[in-house]
Sequence to fold (531 residues):
Amino acid sequence: MKNIWFLRLIIACLFVSCAHNKKKEESNLKDSRPNILWITIEDWSPDLSCYGTKGISTPNVDKLASEGIRYENAFTTSPVCSTSRSAMMTGFYQNYIGANQHRSHDKKPLPFGIKPIPHLLKEAGYYTSIMSWKTDCNFIPNTRGELFTDTSDYTKDGKIGWRNREKGQPFFARVTFGGTHRSWRRDPENPIDIKDVEIPPYYVDNEFIRRDWANGLEQMQLVDRQIGELLQKLEDDGLADNTIVFFIGDHGRCHIRGKQFLYDGGIHIPMIMKYPGKVKPNQVNNNMVMSIDICATILEAAGVTPNVALHGKSLFSKDVKNRKYVFAARDKMDETHDAIRAIRSKEFKLIHNLMPERPWCQLNQYKESAYPVLAEMNILNLKGKLNPVQAAFFAPTKPEFELFDLSKDPFEINNVANNSEYADIKLNLLSELNNWRENVINDKGVSDEFRALGIFPDLCPTATVGEWVILNQDKYDFNKYGWPAWYPTRTLEEWEKARAIWEPYVLRSATDEFYEPVISFTKNKNKKKKK
Fold:
């Protein structure tokens, strides 16, 4: 009998030991590091209800902001997608890594031993997923499959990339919602009255421009619902409590004085971070932060130390807390050649136009094919109906320097660069900007070839610059020299034709179905998508 009880005791001990070891093995399989979900929207400034924008309702993004930190002074390093995304994929300024020319035709490998952020995280044991189609990087590797392990496209077919990882494996997932990139769909569930929106003073305030602005806000409302659906899936999968969520715009709004330029409309972006267990809810942060700071914050959270120190800094670091300035650069946009550098503090911004001989509104086929307000404003300018503030952006040349006192001039319309009262401020900002150009990004400046000196005829011989470009595309290397900087780019008659094509599209009701129109001489490919 004693032997039987003794045998039972041994069996019980073995059972407990096996159960303990199994539990220990399961525990070892679980990586305690946080998951990371990085949500990007395209071409959007902080035009959200949580930022106080009039007319719009974005309850899902607002909820995310209430669960973490909303950054008031967040900026991208460049005002167009491929250059800003190249920076965000690496944590380095795009000029430093040779990725500063938008739509590069000769992509090269990353220099200096720099690796893309998803590669660093994969090496550290993270499951990496790109849950949308866009990477848009001006370097090699640049395809979805080269950068990420999982290319399940949530925005196309609803597949959730993080669900494919090994049990207990932390994930890094990026997703871009592209609806806010022109063109825009209207929101039949919650149409926005044009009386409820605020138009910046550098635009004419009329029905056409108000409706276009409101249409953009309605499209953001649609994107907000998509974001809410994705965050709900994260919640349904039981992952929300151990997932850092970042929400950001890749650069500023797609309006004529926004995207592609270094005014706040082009580089000021929304940025929100939810970090359960580390960040308390309902915070508003006024630090000067940059999009590339997200990269450093992610690597810190994952316990990864890169071989090459990033330009971006952890959002929790003293470097960010004590930062005085952010910097941005603009170079080639498609075949539109220009070069602009900027430095911004909380109080001031200095813009250095490296090619002041060129107009702001020189030919850009994308903008002429996608921006109805560009036609409206050009017509009013050619008819002499713009006030000096509105007409300034349509001048044939730019000043070399633009300085703005942001506390008095948040819309950046009063250039005080030549005001003696601001001479010391200008000198200090220019010194800091030049130091950044020379010692941080190794700025190559502007070559005579890039300026296309002596390449094209003095005047445009056709009614639109776009027409001449199409007729002469076999005679000139536009990849090398860019498009001619002739200005205006269309005659008044040609702009009026474009405006007439845009009008029914812009002024459509929220329930109307319209094809996005094709504007002549812009190479706009009509994909027959109803908007």
In short: The longest strand covers residues 283-290.
